[in-house]
Design brief:
570 residues, mainly beta, Immunoglobulin-like, ten-stranded mixed β-sheet, seven-stranded mixed β-sheet, 4 helices, 43% strand, globular, binds CU-O-CU linkage, binds copper (II) ion
Length: 570
Amino acid sequence: MKKNLSILLATFVFTLTVNKSTAQYNTLWIPDTLSGTHFNLVLKDTFAQLRTGNQTITAGVNNQFWGSTLIFNQGDSVHMNVHSYLNDSTTIHWHGMHLPAVMDGGPHQVIPPGTIWQPYWKVTNNAATYWYHPHLHQMTQDQMTKGLGGFIIVRDTQEAALALPRTYGIDDIPLALTSRKYNADNSFITANTSYGDYMLTNGTPNAQVSLPKQFVRLRILNAEMERAYNLGFSDNRTFYLIATDGGLVNSPVALTRLILAVGERAEIMVDLGNDAIGSTLDLKAYNSGFALGFPGGEPNSTGQFGSLLNNTTFTVLHINIAAATANPITVIPATLASNTYWTSADATVNRTITVTQGQPGPGGLPFALDNTPFVLTYINKTIPLNNIEAWTITNNNVFGHAFHIHDVEFKLISRSTGSVANYEEGWKDVLYLPINSSATFVAKFTDYSDSIHPFMYHCHFAPHEDGGMMGQFVVKSNSTTGVNELSNTKNDYLIFPNPATNRLYINFSSTEMQAYYIKINNILGKTMYMLPRPQLQNGIDISNLSPGVYTLELTDEKTKIVSTKKFVKE
Ligand code: C2O
Ligand code: CU
């Protein structure tokens, strides 16, 4: 009897193991979409069932892990209503968007818990795939690990005129690639780790998707902390790059492998038209065999720089071929765009940035840029508005990096290792910088000057960025009109809360006065609203405030003088 029981037990354990390896795929989660001109983003600490057993403590934007996909049309003014219910302060950065620095969501636009932040801007970016994510200094890895972030898809008339797959979730699939390590209780490991052990595709472990038997478009984002992906398909079929970080490429680029570093996006098209219905195909990361310096190429399977996925080939997405849709895309347009890129001849200023050691030693920082670990109050570079500049980033250090710059999309013009890869010839805002190499890009710094709020440039590896591998620049306009000419008497205004409309109206005593920033704080000094450059013609919607006394803190656009006034919400 005792013997029988142990046989029974052994059979039971065996069955569980078998089930685990056969029923291994979960349906890929496709984030919901938001579109129009007004977007509500609710940031929340929450839980998600990512593995068997306990739920994992996560954070999401309108969701449990990751966030809604925002769909913008070029030319629209988009208004964000970012409401943070997180327990910690955060920021939300619109990665790749060209917008005023005060709206950018970098480390300076801190959103305290319980606060509503309302940035807005006119979308001028090309149709492509962008994203948003937290950018709080020294907390980026922590907050991204929890799952905060989401896609932005920009559409424009040029892209809309092309016969490309664009039915979201059907033949146009967003794929955010990342991985996590877990504690025994299924909580995420965040501290002292660069790589996850388990793949998450749109937050789905072991993801599978059914795709129609035709050309499909994959919008792939490397949303990792540090790992790069050498992507390809399990049968080594050719696929076609149609867009890079900042727009369509001029013509499709045929590839069998594509390296995507952290923060980079690639839109690819892959032909499933010759696949049998019911057959399968895997999108994989062919990450084995890379030398040290490739992020995720380390041989270790444990420790700070180790992971079960390191230096291995692993599946990113399992694809099941299904029937074609009613109007399938069956060919790729030969011409996609007619970009005129900047060349070195356009640049009037050359800058260099060198990857250096941080401050070694206990508690030290691994890497820095130009021997200057990031300090929030130090402006590393001042760039005259409308400059066209060539920046050369040099990395003679011990590891590869991913260099990202805010505000602009750039053209990568040269690499010391030889020519620029064919898959990085389009507009970009992140470049992979391998060990012992340098890369040069050209960008134009148009439209938005601001002497107070800077833009960032940094390594997009979250541990490196948090460790101070970041700098900042202000874009400076030459015109100095009237900055010191205003007298204090002109710098005044009256505020009128209107209980009937739940709005607060502001009357400036001088037409020269304009709000650069308004904060509304409660009686305890807690910020309830953050309103960069608020549009005041219809007043400020204060319906979220409970009755009480509040302080309005206004920064004037020209003088940057800050003044406060009290008001009562009835
Ligand atoms: Cu994706 Cu400075 O950010
Ligand atoms: Cu780095």
